[in-house]
Amino acid sequence: MYCTFGKPVTKYYYHFEDNNFIKLTGLELEKTKKVDKLLDFKEYDVMLQKIFKKNPWIKKKLQNEGYMVDLSKPHQYLLTPTAFNNFYKGVIGEKIFALVAEKYRLDWHDMSDLEKDKFELVDGFLKRGIRQIYVDVKNFDSRKRAYFESEAAFERKERYKLERLKTKRIVIVNLYDWEGKEYPGNSKDWIIYYPALFQNDGTLNRSVVDSLSSLLNEEE
Questions:
Q1: Using an 8 Å Cβ cutoff, are 134 and 162 in contact?
Q2: Name one GO molecular function term (predicted).
Q3: Are 44 and 114 in a shared domain?
Q4: Assigned domain for 116 exists
């Protein structure tokens, strides 16, 4: 889960043979031809601190629950790429979404409340009375957005989820607008994509919260 380079650092380079961050083949402090993917913890920390500055209540809640909220300082031991990308980023993104849902009285249920055959398909669901919508929380930056824009591959995966969940709609909420370009959302009936819960300066995008609330009123 952790790696070390013999001294405190804030970044390193890595390489995987696959796209799921499982087959790690290299870790280096300096970029090489074979080890060329950068993991800069300070870069990710910039996003967190922008969100915390505009929404200090989120930072306080996370601290109270023992979450790591400052990635800017050099450390002797850093999370491996697998632990960071597949665990930390996902967990803290889902937790921030859950805190926003709680603050604005949206009834959020995480994966622990999903039926066994639906576990891991999405992060959870929002519920109002008998109505509910399944939600996936993402943290796409410009590199990951390319995956989202390859529409055929993406839609194939999401339609599979739709069939397994036996629902008519999936909602994807991207946590943060990394580039500040205000990407448009997705207008398809069966999948709704919100490009950023938080704007580039860390401001909460209330229109996303309001839209999710409206969707719950529409669902049958």
A1: no
A2: helicase activity
A3: no
A4: yes
Long-range contacts of 149-157 (CB under 8 A, 24+ apart): 155/191
Domain endpoint, select from 60, 92, 124: 92
DSSP H stretches of helix in the chain: 41-54, 56-64, 81-83, 89-103, 142-149, 151-165, 206-218
Q: Do 82 and 136 have their domain in common? A: no
Domain boundary among 92, 116, 135: 92
Q: Which two tokens stand for residue 114?
A: 């999903």
Task: Indicate whether 53 and 128 sit together in one domain.
Answer: no
For residues 54 and 121, membership in a common domain is answered with no
66 shares its domain with 40: yes
Quick: pLDDT tens for 146-204.
555 556 777 788 888 888 888 888 999 999 998 776 655 565 778 888 989 999 999 99
Contact (CB, 8 A) for 40 and 117: no
Please say whether the beta carbons of 193 and 157 come within 8 A.
no
Number of domains in the chain: 2
CA 41/CA 78 separation, integer angstroms: 9
CA distance 88 to 111: 16
Q: Beta partners for 33?
A: none
Q: pLDDT tens digit string along 62-97?
A: 999 999 999 999 999 999 998 998 889 989 999 999
